[in-house]
Protein 1
Amino acid sequence: MLRKIGVLTSGGDSPGMNAAIRAVTRTALANGIEVVGIRDGYKGLVEGLYEPFTRRSVAETISMGGTILGSARLPEFKEEEVLMKGVNKLKENGIDAVVVIGGDGTYRGANALTQHGINCIALPGTIDNDIEGTDFTIGFDTALNTIVECVDKLRDTSNSHHRCSVVEVMGNRCGDLAIYSGISCGAEVLITPETGYDEEAVLEKLKYLENQGTSHAIVIVSEKVCDVQALAEKVSKATGFAGRATILGHIQRGGSPTPNDRVLASRMGAKAVELLIEGKGGECVCIRNNEITSMSIDECISLTRSSRKEFYRLFDRLV
Ligand code: F6P
């Protein structure tokens, strides 16, 4: 019998996390289940930073970016001693199950808790879209919109000055934010973990485009693949474009979630509670072909990243 559940957000925040917390809270309350908001991710879970939630606790939050619960990274949660402290704290507070919202590190914590008798359901909350088994993660669409808005602005000024804007986007070793924004913004060059970095080829392509009469260029680069400042300097030296680097940084993680993210988060939050009511744990919620479904966290974290070959082929055709 499920009487009380906890909800937490962990890892890097993402727009739409509040919509997910709201959906979890309201679905649970509607089913007669008490809800506790756990502050600051697994850190708060271990330390007992728990707050009873009512319908009103999540009022006016659907349009808010960030997470009302706060987030933190706690690598020590892998250690048995820390994990057991968390399990005991939940039991002392009568919490039978937890919904966790975050990235793959968060998923591992949920699995460990489930193995220790606390059913957990994980929701994909990250702008990176780097979780397997789901077509989209909560926050990806908003971050993509933010990037597109920024790059469109850079294109205006870059066009006026015959420049090449080298723009670094987030993604944490996943090229989705880069490829989706590259296509959306009509970028000329894309550098992602999937394409790799071939400096010569990038400069040659820019020179070729310049010879074809292109007046300015946008290069979208996934973080952690190359140094955008150094590349912009090389562009200035090797081509007729003046290179300028822009690192979009954490601005990509903020802002009011798009309707797509709000709907996705609401559907996923409701599903998480349904799964707990069915007595399930160690599962993560996914969206595939616009259907909300779930799979075991074990299976999810063992999957290898599906490639976006079709997107890259499309990008190349459109330059
Ligand atoms: O996972 C989300 C993310 O924003 C990544 O895109 C990025 O690499 C990382 O978090 C940044 O982490 P932090 O907020 O700790 O600087």
Protein 2
Amino acid sequence: MLIQLKTKNPIASSEITDKKIYQQRRKFLKYSAYSLSTLTATSFMATAFASRTSRAKMAKVQASEWQVAKQEWTSYEDATSYNNYYEFGLGKDDPKANSQNFKPSPWSVTVEGEAEITGTFDLEDILSYQVLEERVYRFRCVEAWSMVIPWVGFSLAALLRRYQPTSKAKYVEFTTLYDPKQMPGQKRAVLDWPYVEGLRIDEAMHPLSLMVVGMYGEWLPNQNGAPLRLMVPWKYGFKNIKGIVKIRFTERQPKTTWNASAPNEYGFYANVNPKVDHPRWRQAKERRIGDPWYASKRKTLLFNGYAEEVAGLYSGMDLTKFF
Ligand code: MTE
């Protein structure tokens, strides 16, 4: 079964959810919990991951429960066809068009650096130890657009703890697959490949930080970062690295792709902040994808609305300097 986690500052019902629809949805979730009661989330999902047939079955089970969701959240269509994934091209519709033959399975993740346990682990194994949860997060791109997406994933902290990071592990670095044959965008030097991102260890261990394997009750489509991506909802979208093949614990702040490419435009922290403008995009407001063309832009919230949960991570820091 999927566990729904509520944060202290949940997405306001006025923003996404009509109450009746919400109650209906709770009912759906209860039914689904009941019908899957003999299977744990992990065994169900891990088995589903192993074979395409059960993967399709899982999608079917979930799809029947998710019809209501389509009215509440950014539509599946928008969330899976308006993407940034430069490994598959620079246009918003390129990732979907160019990633259809990408193979997200089998997949393994290498763990390196300042940890007691290192090595290469099959994603199926990784999943078998994790409880999958559904979390509806606001998602804010530095290009000043936003979405609301029901992700399926597991706690990043729970994953990292399994490798027993040492006291020297102050940061965590994530790396995307490098495979220009499958990822044609990597044939062009628009970025320094492979894409890399990083978090301070306390950010990575924060309960909101999620490793994502699905969305809308289905496995991640290739264009959204299959089979494994990061979701740190209080940061700009570019921190949420896709197609992760490596996790490295480091003592020093790791290099990150966008920061290396334009350090005056993209910081390491990249916390959503309406008061700190990007040179090309004002950050005070955002366009919610799916809103009608005549709708006004929405006000951007500090830490994307998760300040109550995460502001403490940055106390004493000048957020205009550490942007
Ligand atoms: N990860 C990789 N490997 N390559 C990318 O180009 N783009 C980032 C991030 N993760 C990117 C990436 C940016 S700029 C954004 S806004 C989000 O992915 C977009 O995620 P979405 O396409 O699922 O909305």
Protein 3
Amino acid sequence: MALSGIEIYKLLPKTNCKDCGVPTCMAFAMKLASGQAELSLCPHVSEESKAKLSHAAAPPIRTVTIGAGERTVKVGGETVQFRHEKTFYNPTGIALRVTDKEPDSLVEAKLNNFNRNVYERVGLKLKADLVLIDAESGNAEKFAALVQKVAGLTLAPLILRSENPEVLKAGLEKVANRKPLVGPATTENSKAMAEIAKSKGLPLIVHGKDLESLVALSSELQAAGLNDLVLDTGTRAIGKAFEEQVMIRRAVIAAQNKALGFPTITFPCLMTDDLLKEALYASVFIAKYAGIVTLSDVPGEVLFPLLLERMNIFTDPQRPMATSPGIYEINGPTADSPVLITTNFSLTYFIVSGEVENSKLPAWLIVFNTEGLSVVTAWAAGKFAADGIAAYVKKCGIDQKVSNQRLVIPGMVAGLSGELEEELAGWKIIIGPREAQHITPFLKELK
Ligand code: SF4
């Protein structure tokens, strides 16, 4: 169970040396308790305390890594029931399911969607994460051939699924070095599946007939030394499957049920034949509380809304998304190009920089640190004020880059222009558009 700030404080050296960058051990303890600092920042903590704190800091839902090398996906690692209590950490993995009963052309078309549909939003690359290969035919050769084919079409982490250990082994031979998630282990095959997972060091899916059997099986596998488990409740009806996801999370967080302290895998693709319904079901599981959702296909109209939903749910509600402050060059600016200024709220930055880029006109963009607040909010909070902006413009080095000193401020804070003219001698302060969509015509006129 997570320790409180006071409990953590008791384990710290209590010297208030500030080496961790925080004024006191108590303040550092509070930051640790709220997940805003890492224990490694205190170089003086004893080994004994370190062991106690690391154990206490382990999330109640184990983090399971699927894949090897750069293309890995982490699922689980969650610590709360509700996002607003802290944050959710590891975004639900979105998996494309293909089966060895599907024709090659269909598998290729699905993998094409999987590889092609990658989106960039606020500096993040959004895409589906995993490919689940299902041995639907029960034929080892067919399954192995499909695994090999898929492995050649994507470097994404894989999930190999067959209840028959021999069939699973045949597929695994082709990709064991890619550390796929394998399974499922069931009441009938658990010993053989445990052996496969253990011998290759792979995470294992545990499939229960119901929650009770899932608890029993998970406990049995843990006793056998398997720690990287992914839970499948076996339910393929949306209402009951949703209830189970909530019950599992509650059992782990509120009742510290160790047998259920693992990420889950859900199968919207096996709950309906309607792809849009499938997407709807997946959206329910992304919100609550699947580690992985599997989809039968990932065309843009299905994938993109799910990626956006996932991005919103898995951002920290207590920390605005922020871009690094600094000077950004857009479209190859010269000494004569105008200088625009905006805040470091990611959404604001990406909209403004995107519009300047689209204008095809060269410009400098100063991103001012407002701790992730948007222009109007930062201005209202006194974090986007003339004195601060002027001080930053003077010290950031922009005056060495431009000879024609023109600073364009957002139209929303036009009221700052007078004060800025006074603070920034030699600069011409220009009031820019109120809305980013008007940046292109504005820059054309300014030219
Ligand atoms: Fe306390 Fe460690 Fe921070 Fe020093 S570095 S103030 S001992 S928590």
